[in-house]
Write a structure and sequence with these properties.
The chain folds into 2 domains: 2-173, Phosphoglycerate kinase, N-terminal domain (Rossmann fold, 3-Layer(aba) Sandwich); 186-377, Phosphoglycerate kinase, N-terminal domain (Rossmann fold). By secondary structure, it is of the alpha/beta class. The strands form 4 sheets. It has a 6-stranded parallel β-sheet with strand order 5-6-4-1-7-8. A 6-stranded parallel β-sheet has the order 11-10-9-15-16-17, sandwiched between helices. It has a 3-stranded antiparallel β-sheet with strand order 13-12-14. The longest helix has 15 residues, at 170-184. Helix 4 links the parallel strand 5 and strand 6. The chain has helices at residues 37-41, 43-52, 75-85, 98-105, 129-136, 170-184, 203-209, 223-229, 244-253, 295-306, 327-338, 349-356, 371-377, 383-386, and strands at 17-21, 28-29, 32-33, 55-59, 89-91, 112-114, 141-144, 166-168, 190-194, 215-218, 258-259, 263-267, 276-280, 289-293, 310-314, 342-345, 365-366. The chain binds adenosine monophosphate (AMP). Residues 195-198, 201, 220-221, 238, 290-291, 315-316, 318-319, 321, 349 line the site of adenosine monophosphate (AMP).
Length: 392
């Protein structure tokens, strides 16, 4: 693969015990999975290994348990996975230890076993070598398919790959192919849309991408720091005062690349039944807060997006979780859906937005990793991938 790591096409898994790190960290409400996209995205790798006749041993974390926590058992994942694979998935009582080893020793090629939540052991996040060795003892080879956790050096994502030969799974391969094109060789025009609440969380991303993009569209809470840098009054809008100088320097260095909103939806309250009005960026009332981009900005953004060959989106352009402020984010998602070029949605909030608007299927790629896709696009090394075996 382009990133120089061994993949499933380098592995003959027949008869082997394969430990597969997945990202089954799915949202739960009253014990029910509310979005199983991450489970669905792992089916390609699991199906491939079943077909080859491997003994498939799946590992994942779920949530942030402090020790054993019955509310964060992987049982709902085992049930959902079993439905999707149409075969039994055996949930083991723990992720390491004698009972687990015994169950695996009885498994047959094609069987699927799921280890219990690896974060029930604090050694997981501590990347404890002895704990990684216990995990490694369960298998002959390791496959990492947990893109959403690849930016973490934990025992089951990184430690174990120093003991067992490690391969990239099909989801990691797909994520790296799509996100990799953006940072290495994007078709032009290449347009990035950035939103989210604060500039300072996106500085590394902006620094890595701004030299590469043809246009950068800025929306969301970040907007107001840029408007302030231009000397405008921003009323009660969110301001990241530590980043005003940084925003000013970007506007000076890249005046042609950066496109800011020209109008905004403002409100006197951050709520679903708030009174709203549309104002120019030059007329934000002192007692109002900007919470979405306005209609003229949506048209301008959509025009740039639709004529791009590559579009990358990271961060909502308004408070899309609340109905009165979702229109800008919806317009961005719709323009991307109409764009004929390659459209990539970074994980986290932007992925949640395209799901909410029912447009995920219209994108070239929606990343399953929030923090991981952000760090990859910032140009950082993801430890869970770095530890895998290099290809020739
Ligand atoms: P982040 O986690 O920094 O990517 O920010 C995502 C959040 O930014 C979302 O939950 C949005 O609701 C929020 N957001 C977008 N636009 C604004 C805005 N104008 N003011 C405050 N928050 C916003």
């Amino acid at each position: 693969m382009a990133l120089g790591k061994l993949t499933l096409s380098d592995l003959n898994a027949a008869g082997k015990r394969v430990l597969v790190r997945c990202d089954f960290n799915v949202p739960l409400e009253n014990g029910e999975i509310t979005d199983s996209r991450r489970i669905e995205e792992s089916l390609a790798t699991i199906g491939h290994l079943i077909k080859q006749g491997a003994i498939v041993i799946l590992a994942s974390h779920l949530g942030r348990p402090k020790g054993i926590d019955n509310a964060l058992t992987l049982e709902p994942v085992a049930n959902r996975l079993s439905e999707l694979l149409d075969q039994p998935v055996t949930l083991l009582p723990d992720c390491v230890g004698f009972e687990v080893e015994k169950a695996i020793s009885k498994a047959q090629p094609g069987d699927v076993l799921l280890l219990e939540n690896v974060r029930f052991h604090p050694e997981e996040e501590a990347n404890d070598p002895a704990f990684a060795a216990k995990l490694a003892k369960l298998a002959d080879v390791f496959v990492n398919d947990a893109f959403g956790t690849a930016h973490r050096a934990h025992a089951s994502t990184e430690g174990v790959a120093h003991i067992l030969p490690g391969y990239a799974g099909l989801l990691i391969e797909k994520e790296l192919q799509h996100l990799g094109v953006v940072v290495t060789n994007p078709a032009r025009p290449f347009v990035a849309i950035m939103g989210g609440s604060k500039v300072k969380d996106k500085i590394a991303l902006i620094d890595n991408l701004l030299p590469k993009v043809d246009r950068l569209l800025i929306g969301g809470g970040m907007t107001y720091t840029f408007l302030k840098a231009q000397g405008k009054e921003i009323g009660k809008s969110i301001l990241d005062s530590s980043s005003i100088e940084y925003a000013a320097s970007l506007l000076k260095e890249y005046p042609e690349k950066i496109l800011l909103p020209v109008d905004l939806v403002v409100s006197d309250a951050f709520s679903a039944d708030a009174n709203t009005m549309v104002v120019s960026v030059d007329d934000i009332p002192a007692d109002q807060e900007g919470l979405d981009i306005g209609p003229a900005s949506r048209v301008a953004f959509a025009e740039v997006i639709k004529s791009a060959q590559t579009v990358l989106w990271n961060g909502p352009v308004g408070v899309f979780e609340l109905k009165p402020f979702e229109g800008g984010t919806r317009a961005v998602a719709e323009a991307m859906a109409e764009c004929k070029g390659t459209t990539i949605v970074g994980g986290g909030d932007s992925a949640a937005a395209v799901e909410k608007f029912g447009l995920a299927d219209k994108m070239s790629h929606v990343s399953t990793g929030g923090g991981a896709s952000l760090e990859f696009l910032e140009g950082k090394v993801l430890p869970g991938i770095a530890a895998l075996r290099d290809s020739e």
